[in-house]
Write a structure and sequence with these properties.
mainly alpha; 3 helices; two-stranded antiparallel sheet; 2 strands
């Protein structure tokens, strides 16, 4: 349980390398799959220490409960 908590803490630490490495890998996969024109809407963007976001237009988001 301690190991799991440590891994989660590493993943969500905006100053650590774990999230940055995973974000980079995910963004590369998204770009490879979608190509540059579409990928820019789905990549995780932001700077360490600030909020990260995905730039999909709000009118394309449909959340139903």
């Amino acid at each position: 349980n301690i190991v799991l908590k440590s891994r989660i803490a590493d993943l969500v630490d905006p100053y650590g390398g774990s999230f940055s490495q995973k974000k980079s890998k995910l963004n590369k996969i998204i770009t490879d799959l979608l190509g540059e024109p579409l990928a820019k809407f789905y990549r995780i963007e932001g700077v360490p220490g600030a909020a990260f976001k995905i730039n999909i237009p709000q009118d394309l988001i449909d959340i139903r409960y």
